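Course assignment 3, question 2. Fill in each field.
Student: A.L.
Task: Predict the tertiary structure for the chain below.
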Amino acid sequence: MQDVAALASILIYGAALIQGFMVLPGGGLLARERLLIWPGLFALASFGLPLAILPLRKQLARYVWSSFHAGFGQSPPSVLTGIGLLLAAAAFIFWQIGEASQGGRYPTAVFSAFGAGIGILLAQVWLVRVLQRDPLTWPKIRLD
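Answer field:
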C-alpha cells in the first residue's frame, strides 16, 4: 500500500505542477520557487529527518509495523480508504490552484505540505523495505 500511495501522490503532484505552471500568476522564478523549490525542500526534510534521527525512525517504523498489523492496506476497504484520502488531497490542491488563478492566495503552503507528505510516504516505503529484509521481522509479516 505504501508503494501505491507514494506513486499516486507523486502522480497527483505532477499533475498539480502542470496545472499550476499553466494557470498560476507570476510564472518564471516565482512559480519554480513556490511549486518546486520549497516543496522539494519540505519533501527532502520529511524524508531525511525521520530516517536520520533515530527516535523518529523508530517511531515511524513502529507506525508502519502497527499499521500493517492493523490491516491497513491489506483489505479492499482499507485500500479504498487510502485511495479516497489521496483523491481528497488531489481535489484540495486543484481547488487551491483554481482559487489562486482567480486572484486568491498563492497555494505555496499546499504545495509544500504535499511535498512533505510525499517525503514521509517515501520514508515509509524505505522502512517497509528495511523491515522486509530484516530476518527477524519478515517471517512475522509472512505469518500474519
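Instructor remarks: Residues 2-143 form one domain. The chain has a mean pLDDT of 84.
Grade: pending
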